[in-house]
Amino acid sequence: MRRRTRLLRRALVALLCLLPAAGAAGALLLGARDTGRTVTERAPTGAHAQDAGPWAGQTLTPGPAAPAHHAPRPRIVPRSVWLDATARHVQPPPRYDDKVVAVFVHHTDSPNGYACADSPSIIRRLYAGQTGARKWDDIGYNFLVDRCGTIYEGRAGGIERAVTGAHTQGFNHRTAGIAAIGTFTAGTPVPRALTDAIAALAAWKLGLAGVDPRGSVTLVSSNKLARYTAGTAALLPALAGHTDGFRTTCPGAALTVRLPAIRETAARLQGRR
Prior knowledge:
The protein has helices at about 1-35, 120-130, 190-205, 240-245, 255, 260-270, and strands at about 40, 60, 75, 100-105, 145, 150-155, 175-180, 215-220, 235, 240. By secondary structure, it is α/β, with parallel strands linked by helices. A hairpin with a 5-residue loop joins β5 (about 145) and β6 (about 150-155).
């Protein structure tokens, strides 16, 4: 009897010693199954953290990993094609953001009846005006598209990178500016080649950050002269017109009404339904 009692005591002690480990393992298993928890993503750091938009302190509910929606990069003519040695000026190093989550569409407010072979010289004149009379450090637009659908690199810093532009006052961070060469006021024909090129460029650029061109993003205004006062978190289209962020008629009524179709085309190019 005494021997049986000692054996029972030893078994009980062994079981009690194992209970904490079993509890920890059970907690891990429960945690692995828990998909309803919320997590807070760490806010970006650096010079442009104030423009981090929805990524700064956003509460996210994890779920199934979303599939990547990358679009192929369209052909982009480098700035060396339009920027000759006589047009260059001394400019500071480019500035960068962590990613591009929205694009703004503009028009250059220049004549429409140009030959596409003249596009480099048109861009060169725009550059001269912005760096000369306006005293900007570089051309403001990240990209320019002509009526034949040719895409040109604008602002320096690298086609693949999130270069901070100077195109939409208050919303230059985490965005890219795409300028359609011409003036697209109400009633002006908008070439299909131009809108298709804008869609392809937006699909690629937004796809790098997994952004749906048909969706919306939150951007924080950095300038009191913008449509939204400095510090305001504004919900804007991921593929927006200049007028969405600044009080202007740009990109013109004719191009503005084409934006919904451009968004749909861009989404299809990303493989979205």
